[in-house]
Write a structure and sequence with these properties.
This protein folds into 2 domains: about 130 residues, Aspartate Aminotransferase, domain 1 (Alpha-Beta Complex), CATH 3.90.1150; about 240 residues, 3-Layer(aba) Sandwich (Aspartate Aminotransferase, domain 2), CATH 3.40.640. With about 375 residues, it is of the alpha/beta class. Helix 2 packs parallel to helix 8, helix 3 packs parallel to helix 4 and helix 9 crosses helix 12. It has a 7-stranded mixed sheet with strand order 2-8-7-6-5-3-4, with helices on both faces. It has a 4-stranded antiparallel sheet with strand order 9-10-15-12, with helices on one face. The chain has 12 helices and 15 strands. The model has no long low-confidence stretch (mean pLDDT about 95). Bound molecules: pyridoxal-5'-phosphate (PLP).
């Protein structure tokens, strides 16, 4: 059986061939501990520092401002808990938004149990946070604003620079979860006015289980993991050298090819959207039409149940649903709910996300399969 066409790059990406090649010597040969002062430690140590420079180059920051982590979830935990604890004597209020990934929302929720208060800002129908709402939510006790750069389900890109400027004016720390934007759109930290930024390796053709956190000097979150002094004392534990090398190489590719990949992905995404739009009645695109990731297409098919549609196409196309129906109940994603997508549309929502390995032929085949399945389900 042929493998289905993969259009779920926002869930995870394959590892790029050049990333595998860069990692190989650190799996097969250079096994040493980067902390060892003897010969075996030298090459792993050099490789980790090179990777740090590659990540820093993509974000246009200093390499000392990069901490390697186990992924987007850890980076978000480190940033949010670390700042909350470091600033607890100054205040206990955190501002976030309703369509954050659980790796932010659940961290904020957990902090409430330790006496912190959170304001969860609403978004409009296109998934955008209003910077005026941020201004209104600020209190004397506000110590952190954490708003995602781009949303994983609908692709909407938030006005992070504007929100970051507001934060800086009020002397509040600004964090952004950039797990979905790094490698797809520019993520230089200075123009974004952010103090902390989270990266997830497996969204940009590096392996799973590695990520990074940018921490602007002299911002100082409480250390995430106590132990030996790795990562300049901020995150103890022997470095996973091969994965870190992979992340570094993936960031190098992203920096070189960002514009070209973005144009190619947008072309494929738009081709898919146009084909669906011209062949399927009662279809609606969710998210902002322009302020959106170049690879993401979130579509609601009115009156259809997303998991029935996924079932029909499962052999040929791999995509994600925005809702799940279990017997009589429909579980609509918190993102679509926050955007006030009506239930009869929301329950038939699919997320298509294209990537570097997607071809025009795949897009055309996938569109055909989806069109046929929708027609069948609508009878
Ligand atoms: C926006 C966003 N943040 C955080 C994460 C979590 O990253 P990781 O899987 O590396 O822990 C994801 C992954 O889906 C994501 O899309």
């Amino acid at each position: 059986m042929n493998k289905p066409i993969y259009l779920d790059y926002n869930a995870t990406t394959p590892i790029a061939p050049e990333v595998i090649e860069a990692m190989r010597p650190f799996i097969e040969e250079h096994f040493g501990n980067p902390s060892s002062s003897h010969w075996f430690g030298a090459e792993p140590k050099r490789a980790v520092e090179k990777a740090r420079e590659q990540v820093a180059y993509l974000l246009q920051c200093a390499s000392e401002e990069i901490i390697f982590t186990s992924g987007g979830t850890e980076s978000n935990n480190h940033a949010i808990k670390g700042i909350a604890l470091a600033m607890k004597d100054r205040g206990n209020h955190i501002i976030t938004c309703a369509i954050e990934h659980p790796a932010v929302l659940e961290v904020c929720r957990a902090l409430v149990e330790f006496g912190f208060e959170t304001t969860v800002l609403p978004v409009n129908n296109e998934g955008l946070v209003n910077p005026d709402d941020v201004k209104t939510a600020i209190r004397a006790e506000t110590v952190l604003i954490t708003i995602m750069h781009a949303n994983n389900e609908v692709g909407t890109i938030q006005p992070i620079a504007e929100i970051g400027e507001i934060a800086r004016k009020h002397d509040i720390v600004m964090h952004t979860d950039a797990a979905q934007s790094v490698g797809k759109i520019p993520t230089q930290v200075d123009p974004l006015f952010v103090d902390l930024l989270s990266i997830a390796g497996h969204k940009l053709y590096a392996p799973k289980g590695v990520g990074a956190l940018y921490v602007r000097e002299p911002v100082n979150p409480v250390r995430f993991c106590h132990g030996a002094g790795q990562e300049r004392g901020r995150r103890a534990g022997t470095e996973n050298v091969a994965l870190i090398v992979g992340l570094g190489r993936a960031c190098e590719s992203a920096a070189i090819n960002l514009e070209q990949h973005s144009v190619e992905m947008r072309m494929l995404r738009d081709r898919l959207y146009d084909t669906l739009l011209h062949n399927v009645p009662e279809l609606k695109r969710n998210g902002h039409p322009e302020l959106t990731l170049p690879n993401t297409l979130n579509i609601s098919f009115k009156g259809i149940e997303a998991d029935k549609l996924l079932e029909k196409i499962a052999d040929t196309v791999a995509i994600s649903a925005g809702a799940a129906c279990h017997s009589d109940t429909v579980h609509i994603s918190h993102v679509l709910k926050a955007m006030a997508v009506e239930e009869e549309w929301a329950k038939g929502t699919l997320r298509f996300s294209v990537g570097r390995m997607t071809t025009t032929e795949q897009i055309d085949s996938a569109a055909e399969v989806v069109i046929t399945a929708v027609k069948k389900l609508r009878g």
